[in-house]
Structures are given as structure tokens and as C-alpha cells.
Specification:
Number of helices: 7
Structural class: alpha/beta
Number of strands: 9
Helix content: 25-40%
Oligomer: single chain
Radius of gyration: 16 Å
Distance between the termini: 37 Å
Strand order of the largest sheet: 3-2-1-4-5-9-8
Strand content: 25-35%
Shape: globular
């Protein structure tokens, strides 16, 4: 499916508008989610000495930002929805960048790790390579990217008011490898359930060192 730049921008605008309208509901529905397995997966593979410079990409209301800070690291949030960015600053006390994911302005080679939990699947597949290139560029050499997405069979389109792409492992590997990342590990969530009851694909990737 080929999309015009205007169509890609439209997906971002409508998806962000959904999160703006439902910010409070989103916070109440996700604030108690246990993503400790994902946080541990990112931190485990970072080889730099702590504390780490971390980017919580699509940080939402700041749940994981606060966790990273409480663990002693230096997290920065990035959120596209203005209300969620405001909530994240208030809840975590961290710096939060409000940026459209399609128009990023990130520092080069700055972060030891990028945590992209339940966010990259909102990016139209046509726009994903450029975004991954920008995440690659903002990582230090040897830095680590964590991602978690709802897995699927490549279906792409609207789920209600939100746009989504449901990658399988091989498709996800193709995108990340093309951006220069090296796979470290992957797993399905929630832990301890049969595969057909694990709708989330988590993976960890490294930007090769200098």
C-alpha cells in the first residue's frame, strides 16, 4: 500500500487526536500495567556505565519515565500528544519533549538506550524506515533500542480512531536490520502463557559500536 505524505500526516494527526481526547482514560487504563520485564530487557543489554541516558519514546503519561528515574537513570520522555506530555512532566518530574513522531528533532549519539514500548506500531510502514534511522542516529555507538508491538500478520490500517501496523517477527527484523540494528533478543508477552495468548512481540536491538 502506497500512501502520500499527506495521508501519512493524516494518520498521525487522527491518532494523536485520539490520545488527546482520551488522555485521562488512557492513564487510568495503563498506570498499573507491569512492564518490568521490558524495562529489565533494555537495561540488561546496555553496556555503558550507569546511570544511563534514556529516551522513553512515546512516554505517554510518564509511568515508565518515573520508574527509570527511580532506578537512578537519566530519562527523557518524548510524546506526541500535548496532554500526555503535560501529564508526564507532572507525574515524573522529567524533561519531556513534545514532538510529532514524523517530525523528530533529536540530538545525535546522545542516548544509551531508547525504550519504545507499545508505540512504533502506530507508524505507517512507509514512514517507519525514516523514523528508525532517526532513532539509530540518536543512540550512542553500542546503544540499545527496545521495542514492543502487538504482533500480527502484516495487517495495516485503522483500529477505531488509531492507525496501526501489526508486524510479525520476520517483517520487524527486516525493518530493524535495514536501519543498521543488530538483534540481541526477542520474546512474546505476557510471560508464562501459550504463544496464542501472547499478543505482544518484544525485541531488543543494538547500534553497533564504533
Amino acid at each position: 500500500m502506497t500512501m502520500t505524505s499527506e495521508a501519512i500526516e493524516h494518520t498521525a494527526a487522527l491518532t494523536l487526536a485520539h490520545y488527546e481526547r482520551h488522555a485521562d482514560e488512557f492513564w487510568q487504563g495503563t498506570r498499573d500495567h507491569d512492564v518490568s520485564q521490558n524495562i529489565a530487557a533494555l537495561l540488561h543489554y546496555i553496556e555503558a556505565p550507569p546511570p544511563f541516558e534514556l529516551l522513553d519514546f512515546g512516554c505517554g503519561p510518564g509511568r515508565d519515565l518515573k520508574t527509570f528515574q527511580e532506578l537512578g537513570h537519566h530519562p527523557t520522555g518524548l510524546e506526541g500528544a500535548a496532554r500526555l506530555a503535560t501529564m508526564a512532566r507532572a507525574y515524573s518530574g522529567c524533561d519531556v519533549l513534545q514532538q510529532n513522531f514524523l517530525e523528530l528533532n533529536l540530538p545525535a549519539a546522545h542516548f544509551d538506550g531508547v525504550f519504545a514500548n507499545a508505540v512504533l506500531f502506530h507508524i505507517p510502514s512507509q514512514a517507519l524506515p525514516q523514523l528508525l534511522n532517526e532513532l539509530y542516529a540518536t543512540l550512542k555507538p553500542g546503544g540499545v533500542l527496545f521495542s514492543s508491538n502487538p504482533r500480527g500478520d502484516g495487517r495495516e490500517g485503522w483500529s477505531g480512531e488509531r492507525y496501526g501496523v501489526f508486524h510479525d517477527l520476520e517483517a520487524w527484523r527486516t525493518y530493524l536490520s535495514a536501519a543498521g540494528f543488530v538483534e540481541l533478543t526477542h520474546y512474546y508477552r505476557p510471560a508464562g502463557l501459550p504463544l496464542n495468548q501472547q499478543p505482544w512481540l518484544a525485541s531488543v536491538w543494538r547500534k553497533p559500536g564504533a
